[in-house]
Structures are given as C-alpha cells and as structure tokens.
Design a protein that fits this description.
six-stranded parallel beta sheet, Quinone Oxidoreductase, Chain A, domain 1, Rossmann fold, alpha/beta, single chain
Length: 339
C-alpha cells in the first residue's frame, strides 16, 4: 500500500520533509479494524512528533491521528463494526498513523461516522472532539445539567480543540463561555462556535476580564502555553474551581498558587487510554458515538475550515507549514491518497 512518512526532521521549506513510499498492508489484530482512509486532518501533535524525529530512521514514520474511512476487514474478536461501515477515529500515538491508504485501529477507540457529515467534514473532528469531551466532562467534571449557567474560560478558542470545546461547553453543558482570540476573524469564529465573550490574549488578561465585567470563572480549559498562563489562571479561577490543560509545561508549575482556593488542576491527553490500554478504553468508542448523535441532531457542527486537496508528500508539507504558522482557525483536512 502507499504511505507518506517522515524519515528525519526537516523544516517544511525542505521538499524532502515528507516522503512517499510503499509498505505492506497491515494485518488487523483481534480487536482491530482495517480501514481504507478517505480523509485525514492535521493536528499540532503531528508537527510535534515530526519535530522529535532527530536521527534518520531506517523506515519513515507514518504520522496522522485524525481519520475517516471505510472498514475493509475486521479482527476475529471485533464486535462493534463490520466491513463496509463508515468510521471516524483518532487512533493511537503508539501505532502507525493515518497518512496512508490503509490503517489498523482498535475498535474500542473508533466510532461510526456521523451520517450527516461527509468524510472530510468528519475527519476534522475525532481527536479534538475526544480531547474536548474528556477535558470538559471528565477532567473538569462538568455536569451537563446541574452546572448550566456556570462560566468557563477557554484559552485558545479558535484552534481545533477550542472550536469544538466552545460548542460542547455552550450547547451541551449550558456554560457561559469566555474565549481568547486576538484577530477579528478569530473573534468572529469563536462567537460563531458559541462563545458569549471574547478577550484578547495579547493584552493583560486581568484587564480584559475587567473590561467585560468578570472577576472569576468556575472552569478554565488551557489550550496554549501552560507556563505563560498558569499564574493568571490561578488568579481568575474561582475558589474550588477547576483548571485543565492539554499543553505540557517546560518548567515546574507553582501549584501553591491554587492551594488557598482549593482549586484543582488536571492534564488531558487523549492518547492515554489507547497508550496504556486502560480498562475503560472503550469509553472513547462510546464518546465518539455520542458526539456523532449530537452532530446528526444538529447540536454540534464540523470545525472544518480548509480542505487542502489529496494527501501527498507536498500537500502534507504545506499543511504542516500552515499549522506551524500559529494562525490556523478550525481544522485543515486532506482527502485520502489517490489510488
């Protein structure tokens, strides 16, 4: 089968940043689906993994952790899917990615594609939807009924995770959402997703809170530079409030800043369940099934903003360059490799 991978880190300005190659079609394990990839999305994790490949590899590493496609074959113990099913998933960072014609994925972390979305629209969402759902409803512990009316600050509202987190927080949980955005187009996008207020992260956030007449928030979801925002998050979180971040820190966080408020801090990493094969790994299947129902009911919407053509070494290179620019709104999607 055809695949596209990275042999060693090269900047996106280098035409050899990605290489196209042939490899054997993977054989599905007992609980695996063999999926023919119809569309993929590119995420910051792709650029980070690529940047970490310092030494030249004997065989290119296939990246990509957001896909929609059709099940071609199932493992002997698969019970949730059958050949011909349309599926969507993010996969596992410990296995080869979706930048290929075919990919194996564990059925416990895959879901049936929303019927109302095409493959490109669907591929934009699994990784970010899982991340946002786990962050909001598991790590922050937001209750979808009794916490309605409470407030949340989402730092990095116009990105992939922010775009779906705003929708989930406002539409599903009934929270008042304050999102950070600095450009006219990102402010407009956040408001379209459901943010009640937007504040400029390029300004002093405490002053921005004063500008909109807000002193504290019940929850914070940090999607950008935990080191930089930690002190201000500790300042504006309500006593007994909760903070969750998806961005790793480069220096120790001063958790003492949260002590007097009895505030909690949690990490969200959507690959945890697949990486460690946790006992509740199947909850990502359940989550994707629920999100698909909400999309088909019109309560959540795709965050696709840019289609970048058919997947190739060249289009992946330009897609990574777009993400690395830091100016991406929503999600960027590529169609599957041409046969």
């Amino acid at each position: 089968m055809k695949a596209i991978g990275v042999r060693q880190y090269l900047p996106t300005s280098d035409p050899d940043c990605f290489v196209e190659f042939d490899q054997a079609t993977p054989a599905p394990g007992p609980r695996d689906l063999l999926v023919r990839i119809k569309a993929v999305s590119v995420n910051p994790v792709d650029t980070k993994v690529r940047a970490g490949i310092s030494a030249e590899l004997d065989e290119p590493r296939v990246l990509g952790w957001d896909a929609a496609g059709i099940v071609e074959q199932v493992g002997n113990d698969v019970s949730l899917f059958k050949p011909g099913d349309a599926v969507w998933y993010a996969g596992s960072i410990t296995r080869p990615g979706c930048n290929a014609e075919l990919q194996c994925v564990d059925e416990r972390i895959a879901g049936h594609k929303p019927a109302s979305l095409g493959y490109a629209e669907a591929a934009a969402m699994p990784l970010t939807a899982i991340t946002a759902w786990e962050a909001l409803f598991e790590r922050l512990g937001i209750h979808r009924l009794k916490d309605a009316g409470k407030s949340i600050l989402i730092i990095g509202g116009a990105g992939g995770v922010g775009s779906i987190a705003i929708q989930m927080a406002s539409e599903i949980a009934g929270l008042t959402v304050i999102a950070t955005a600095s450009r006219d187009e990102t402010v407009a996008w956040c408001r379209k997703m459901g943010a009640s207020e937007c504040i400029n992260h390029r300004n002093d956030l405490k002053q921005e809170f004063e500008r909109i007449g807000v002193a504290e928030v019940d929850y914070i979801l940090c999607l950008n530079d935990t080191d930089y925002y930690f002190a201000i998050m500790a300042d504006v979180i309500k006593p007994q409030g909760s903070i969750c971040s998806i961005v790793g820190n480069s220096r120790p966080l001063d958790l003492d800043l949260l002590k007097s408020k009895s505030a909690t801090f949690a990490w969200e990493f959507m690959f945890t369940r697949a990486m460690y094969e946790t006992d509740d790994m199947h909850r990502q299947h359940d989550l994707l099934e629920e999100v698909a129902r909400l999309i088909d009911a019109g309560r959540l919407h795709t965050t696709l903003t840019r289609q970048h053509g058919t997947m190739s070494a060249e289009t992946l290179r330009t897609a990574h360059a777009k993400l690395e620019s830091g100016r991406m709104i929503g999600k960027l999607v590529l169609d599957g490799i041409a046969s």
